[in-house]
Amino acid sequence: MDSGVFAAHSGGGRLALPSLRLLAPPLQLMMASMWKVLKKRDVPNYWTLAEYVSLVVDVVPDMLMHKHRLQLLLGLRPRYILELCRNDLMDRDLILSHLEKIKSCPLVNVDEPGPDIVVNFVELIHSLLKDPEARQEFFTEVFPVEYGTQYDNDLQTLFYNFPTALQNSAAEVKSGNLESPVGYYYQGVWRALDGTTIQQFHTSSAVCQCLKGKMIHRYGDSTIRQWYEYLVATVPDLKDFNLHSRTQVGPFMALDYTNNIMVTYRCHGPPIRFVDMSWNF
């Protein structure tokens, strides 16, 4: 798109960041954020990145090949744990809890090199925790060679296909054209015009069970936004992923790593009534 169009409507200035967020779907914002983590080598966020990749691929198993997924997760998570070990004031309990999560990951319970990698890595971490001299020697001589620039470049290469695969998976979900209403709300209950009985969910556990293993994309006005807010408030482990968006405008994204749930919300258009805009349409 011609950048001059935006310049003409914004008085020659740049679009405000909240306005740009209106033009980008939550998934695109998330992909940009994830790429930024890898490009900047933001290791403290590698575990969160790995959790998100694992969540999405659990929901859409065919998105990445098993071997590709295994290599990516066993690249991000160990690198994060090693970063924890570099700190002289390291939290041993936190490190050990992350080791347990890697050991219990279903991905490594297969007849592939994964289990051997995990076993060797766990033994390495235990030795680093027990022997300060061995830890100093490892981070002085071994770490720069095995976990240096080439390691980071390999992680970026492994991650390269993930955004495209995710976008393609999202594109496969297409909405049909509806020529007439399919139902209505009356006395707090959705009533389908074709007589279909709609199942009701009256507890947070029932809602969670219904959403388990699903990606839900909500697109619409403030009513749809309130449904998003209701789900976040109702499902205990469904937490907002901070996209630094305006409270009323969005876009928003919430993740439940335990139950493999992802919920997104995007406004159907530039909501002039919701927030002051720095440019006019």
TrEMBL record:
Cross-referenced InterPro entries: NXPE4_C (IPR057106), TINF2 (IPR039098), TINF2_N (IPR029400)
A GO molecular function held by the record: telomeric DNA binding
One Pfam family from the record: TINF2_N
Cellular component annotations (GO), alphabetically ordered: shelterin complex
GO biological-process terms attached to the record: regulation of telomere maintenance via telomere lengthening; telomere capping
Domain NXPE C-terminal: residue ranges: 190-274
Domain of life from the UniProt record: Eukaryota
Domain TERF1-interacting nuclear factor 2 N-terminal residue range list: 35-166
Protein name: NXPE family member 3
Lineage: Eukaryota, Metazoa, Chordata, Craniata, Vertebrata
